[in-house]
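Anyone? Bumping this.
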Amino acid sequence: MNKTLKLCFIGFGNVGQKFSRLLLEKEEWLKSRFSCRVIVTGIAGRSKGSLVNTGGLDLTAVLSMTEQAGHFDPDSPDFFTGTPEALMDASEADVLVEMSTLSIRDGLPAADYMRYAFRHGMHVITANKGPEAWYYNELKDLAADNGVQFLYETIVLDGTPTFNLMTETLHGNALSGIAGILNGTSNYVLKLLEEGRSYEEAIRAAQEIGLAEADPSMDIDGWDGAAKICAMANILMDAHITPEDVSVESVRSVTAEALKRARSRGKCIKYICRAKRAGDKVLASVRPEELPREHAYNSVNGTSAVFTLYTDLAGELTVIQTDPGLLQTAYGIYSDLITLMKRI
Amino acid sequence: MNKTLKLCFIGFGNVGQKFSRLLLEKEEWLKSRFSCRVIVTGIAGRSKGSLVNTGGLDLTAVLSMTEQAGHFDPDSPDFFTGTPEALMDASEADVLVEMSTLSIRDGLPAADYMRYAFRHGMHVITANKGPEAWYYNELKDLAADNGVQFLYETIVLDGTPTFNLMTETLHGNALSGIAGILNGTSNYVLKLLEEGRSYEEAIRAAQEIGLAEADPSMDIDGWDGAAKICAMANILMDAHITPEDVSVESVRSVTAEALKRARSRGKCIKYICRAKRAGDKVLASVRPEELPREHAYNSVNGTSAVFTLYTDLAGELTVIQTDPGLLQTAYGIYSDLITLMKRI
């Protein structure tokens, strides 16, 4: 019972805070399940400052300080000034929990933090899909070369088993394809368009419920979907592609008129991500597609998401995640932590 | 590379034969993946006779004999006369693959074969949901007491990860409920009723495509669904219930008129199995329920099936299996074999 697992966080936004709360709640369970104490020895916030304590930060105090002041107290004895790399060193952590700001366009700086962690013998759990979309094979090899784990369950559909579904349960299957509605904002916007709202109104509504970013073009123009299908294809189908290889059509190409016409013919239009094996290549796309109105994908609305795996032995499997929130994202990271503790 | 895993089959119907073909196809893969040769040393057919060869039966020859003659050759040197229990002994097997005729009403004789196997130190993989519905906790304890594995992935939704989904990927989650369309025949019959066919016509059509048994009452009156939700609740929610505890309403209670009325109000009627935690009990039911027409369950037709898990951390997850066939059932058993080989 004197084993200790030290975590270092990069990023302490909504997800990092929710994950911290989950850790506090599950502290005793983890201790009794794995005979191991999990502590957080470093946190690098973007605008909040950074904290280090190799004996373990007081998470409850850190959370209440963050809630009250919006940043860490520069007078705290744990306050740390330095780069995230310096913080990783100072924290003496076993695991980097990488939750930095999303970086779809190039996977940076998240991928650089992960490279640094791997080279310094740290396991990595990431909530960032950019690195897997852009550099999956390099990062996977780097982790293997350094004998450490590389986990990323939460990057698609949060805590819903996606990558674990394949590696832990669908053993022996080969995938011929993947499909899915992977971006909530564009899906939500389509629904509102169908109900007669304009693009501008729909995007504003998506922003109001916290779905869309201030700049919604990443979602609406398909880049978020492209990064996600890319990460899935790289991880599950050994695709060796980047978002630049994905054929992307913006959801803006769908008119209210087209939605009405589809509806009158018993159809619906959904914004679908696909990856498909074609010879020794994997072709990926993100585009509006017409489906029968009673298709399972037509039941996927709001923040819900869905993916389908086309397997050779288990057949066609569809997984729907209904109305996820922040807890589900935090659970994805927590689930990786359990996977890690089971493996090491 | 001189490890050998010996399997003994009870039952050699469609599923057993398909599983044998899959074993032959995957022989080399299993050998290279686990450095272990998998052989079949005993087969107890119901009407085909039985075979034993502790050095390994020639599965290719057994399959072609079965195809040509419909039974095993009594003049074969491997031909065996005796009870399934005597065959388990004679086969010197490490694993019982239990595929005997379905026994929903009492789980017998399948449960007895499994008890015998556990007591004699054999792992058990079963395709039979009866034993898990009636005697799950007793069998689980018996397996644990004898230090052997007890696996049953294929009993609900064939090879679709159901039990493995929970144990291998949704670590740390508690379930508050399960729902699902778990019986294909009754679901198919409802669909045809909605299209204006009579019950008799619908049942005959389900029989013609091989969905319904000669006596379809097990499906139509909800007992198959009751056994499945019972097995799921016992295994995943520690429910300690039997099919007698399930509140069952036959799908016959749904009239064509009720289906039409539901449709006119933008609804549909589906035959739903449920288990729900209520205090320290788990309440289970199988009955027709009205759902919105755009509900994911309304896209589940033909032989397709679906289940939903209500979890505390990962949220609400729905898994749809689309158009499964015999390969998917065989894969469920094969997937258990891989789980077993990973664990031992």
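Late reply, but here is one note on the structure posted above: The mean pLDDT of chain B is 95.
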